[in-house]
Sequence to fold (615 residues):
Amino acid sequence: MQTEPLGHNVSLAERAYRIRRNALLMGEVQGQGYIGQALDIADVLATAYFHAMTYRPEDPEWEGRDRFLLSNGHYAIALYAALIEAGIVPEDELETYGSDGSRLPMSGMAAYTPGMEMSGGSLGLGLSIAVGRALGLKRKGSSCRVFTLFSDGELDEGSVWEAIMSASHWKLDNLIGIVDVNNQQADGPSTQVMAFEPLVDKLEAFGWFVQRVDGNDLDAVVAAFDAATSHTEPKPRMIVCDTRMGCGVPFLEAREKNHFIRVDEHEWQMALEALEAGRKA
Amino acid sequence: MKPVAPAPTKTRLKTSAMIASIAGEGQRTKPAPFGHALVELARSRPDIIGMTADLGKYTDLHIFGQAFPDRYYQMGMAEQLLMGAAAGMAHEGMVPFATTYAVFASRRAYDFIHQTIAEEDLNVKIACALPGLTSGYGPSHQAAEDLALFRAMPNMTVIDPCDAHEIEQVVPAMAAHQGPVYMRLLRGKVPLVLDEYDYKFELGKAKLLRDGADVLVISSGIMTMRALEVAAALEADKVGVAVLHVPTIKPLDAETILREASRSGRMVVVAENHTVIGGLGEAVAGLLLRSGVTPIFRQIGLPDEFLLAGALPTLHDHYGISTDAMSKTIKGWL
Fold:
């Protein structure tokens, strides 16, 4: 983050830890949620919000901000966790997660939440909107970037490929796609629901600058974001992140059915403790 | 090569072409009123851009594209992307006019319009050609359900203009309106009718074009053109037909419709180029019933069927929305 840092001495690993912790605490409020995804994407969100992106926490609609579009609306709990850590959403709203009248509904909706740039939920929308935003920013002569997070399951949607084709047609070098490959969607492993590999080859063939990294290796993620933002070819950029559902909480990571996790009451404390135990110094 | 003997003169077969003129024989027309009006508007509005899904030439947006090439975005044959990208443009402060055929916007891109545009009340203007039964190409291109679908979508303003004169006024009005608008677009050589009625389009307003004592026709789009012809035809039979033009399907001008429908002794006929399910007819019926106004009520519109392919005049006769067919139907109801 290039604005005045909030506790700039806090390491990215610590940011990722706190994002995971926030997500677990929100999950506990409802007793369920897309916790596996929040845990798997925390390193990417930490890198986006505390390394790569420019924004002003006190002014989420500041014109000079980089835009972050959450296409997979069910990852809202993960983004809220990051928005709270970034100071865009006040920390005391965490306990309202998914409750009546809350600004943090279980599926991400733009009208509800500061810092939420689009309403997801219906999948495969984000990259299309991102194409329009990236084109719009270019029209305005803005150097802001559009980051768009979507999931491997969304690759089933034809609209994603429409957007992938169009982004390279329009040479959208201000668009950075991040695909979370956790190989888990509603009906099972993504690769079995609908084969999407070899993803890098496909994206490169579509004219993108593509990197594939271990999305739970912070250093690798940071390097990929740096390479994406400093790349000079007039191409859109994609970071394919292989992640582990439940990353940071070993017993959740080991669960077979972890697309939508229900955690028993006593397990939340166990999860928090497991997360704490793995916390990097 | 032997000279070919001239073919015997024979009647040219009627066509079921995708693009068929909706103008009647000898009717006055104006070319591409939407495209020209958008160019005119864009001269003073640098935020206006044009976007299309491989139908620039067939929605008259190419006129805009020629005038403002740097404000024209060809998104390819991808209606979902078109709508999502238009939403993104609107987020960044542009006012995109997105064009395609009505069938593709209503059927293929409905979720994208719903989620990326309407839910966030974005300033995207959707102008769609071949509305209702204005193509003889068959159900793939006949948008009989578009009004029902877009009426049902919250935040969406829905406009069904009658002619070139009206389209020229609708374009700046939709740009001036804050929020998403769906417009049924008549393209190519568009009939010119309403200039003779001292007519001025106002968003959300119904206009009484002519008065009559026996029948009140409430209509939108090209059916207003037909209703005016029906009124002239029935005048010869001493039947007084009033025509209330309702170009804004949503929000409906309840006040004017209730006022005109409350006048005693008139049969109310709603005429629309749309399925009788969920369009203007049922919108008016619901309004009247909720308000306790219960005239004799009739609907002229397309049946709840997949429509035939064929020449437009043939189909309009077949489905009862041609001037002759309407005249006969209304006389039969009297």
Remarks:
- Chain B has a mean pLDDT of 95.
- Chain B has twelve helices and 14 strands.
- The radius of gyration of chain B is 20 Å.
- The first helix of chain B runs from residue 33 to 44.
